[in-house]
Structure of DUF4371 domain-containing protein:
Amino acid sequence: MRTNKHNTKWEQVEEFKLRLTKDLESESSYCNLCKLSLTPRRDLISRHSQYSDVHKENLKNKILSIQSLGLLDEIIVNPELVEQNSSLKVTEYHPSWNIGRPWLQYEEKTPYTAYCHSCQGPLWASIHSIRRHEGSDKHKLKSITSDTNKLDSFNYQQAMAKIQMCVFIVNQGLAFRLIDSLVPYFKIMFYDSAILADFYQNRKQLVPILKDVIVPTHKERLGHILKINFFSLLVDESTDVSIKQCMCIVVRYFCPETNSVRESLWDLVSIFDGDEKTKADAETLSEKIFETFRNYDVPLTNILGFSSDTASVMIGVNNSVAQKLSKHNPCVTLVKCSCHIQHLCASDAVKTLPPIYQNINNFFYNYLSPSSKRCHRWRILQIKSKLKPLRLLKPIFSRWLSIYPCMKRILGRWSSLRRFFAAEVKRTKGDATAKKLLAYLRNPTNKLYHSYLVTMYMKLYLVMKTLQYEKPLLSEQHTITKIFT
C-alpha cells in the first residue's frame, strides 16, 4: 500500500502559501491556521482550504489581527511579505480615502499602509481598517487633543495679526476708522490666506485691544526696566479737543536691550476726574504722577532728573511738583525746558517793538486764507512774476518754530505782496484792511523792522531745532552759543 507524504512544493502554491507546513511529528501536512494535521493529499488539503468553515473563520481572524497588530510593522520594513502572501487581501492606498479625513495621509514607505497624524502611527491600507480605526476611542481622544492644539495655534496667529495691525495704525498716526476698509482689501489681495479667511476687525475692536492688550503689556515691560534702572521724568500739561485737561508723563531711561538712551510715553493722566473740588495744584499733580509709578512698584528713588516748563506749579521753590519730588529723592536734578525759556525771552523782547510787528503775520494770513478768489489772484500774480506760487503760512504763537517761516515768507514776497494789495485796493474800491496792509508794505521802516525780526527769529529757530535733536550735542555747545554772539 502506497503511503502519502507531505510535499514541500505544496507550500509554494498561492492557495496554501504561509498556511501549510509539514507536521513535525509525522509525514502529514499541517495547517497553521487551524492547528490541525491533514492527510498529505492535495485534493483533501484544497477541499479543507475552500470548504471548511473553521478554516475560513480562522483565516478571517488572522487577517484582522495582521491589519491591527502583528504583520503591519513587518510590512513597513519588508513590503515583499504582501507579495508572498496573497491571502492578506490588501489593496493600495486610494486618494479618495482622504475625503473627510484630514488626519489621514499616504505613507510613502509602502503602498499598502497609511499614516494617522492624530495617533502618529501607521494603518493598514484598507478602507475597513481605516473606518474601524476612525471609530476607536483612542483615535477620537487623540483627534480632539490634536484639533484643540491646532485651533489654539490658529487663534494665536489671528490674535497676533490683529495686534500687529493695531500697532501699525498707532505708530503711523493713522485714523482708527481706516481699519474698517483695510481688512476687506487684505482679504481681496491675500485670498488664499487661512488667517484672513475668518478674520474680522473694526475700529470698535481696535480700542479694546490697545487698552487691554498693547498698553498693559508695554507698561509692564517698561515698568520692569524702570524698577532696576535710574531714569528722568518729563512732564507737561495739555488740553485735548474735548477740553479735557491731561498731563503727559514721559520717561527717559537707558534700555539694556538696545544699549541706548530712549524716551517712552509712560502715561497720560486726566487731571480732573469729575470731582468739582479737584484743583490743578502741586499736591494734585504730584500725587497723580507718583500714583502711576506706585501701581507698577517703581521706586521713586530711581528718579534722577525732572524737566518741565517754567510754570510755578511745576518748578516753584516753595510748593511745586519738583519740590515734592525732592522729598523722595533729594538728588533729583531740575532741568527747565530750554525751548520754553528761549521763547519767553523772544516774546518779551518783541514787546519792546511797536505792537503791529507782533500781529502782522496774522493780518496777512487772515486776509488771504478765508477767500479762495483772493488766493487764486495771489497765485496768478506770482506766476506772472515768474515766481514759484507759494501760500502764506499761518503763524501759531505757541508753536515757536512756526514764527520764523511765516516772517521769512512775507519778506521773500514783499514786492509781490505790495503789487497784490495795490490791485486789491483798486478792485475793492478802498477796503480798509487792504489799505492798512498796503500802507505797511510801502513804508521802508516796516521792511527794515521786518528784516531785523527775520534775522533774530532765524537764530531762535536754529537754536530751537538744535535743542530738539535726538543725538547728544554736548560737543557742539560752543557752536550753539556762538549763534547769539
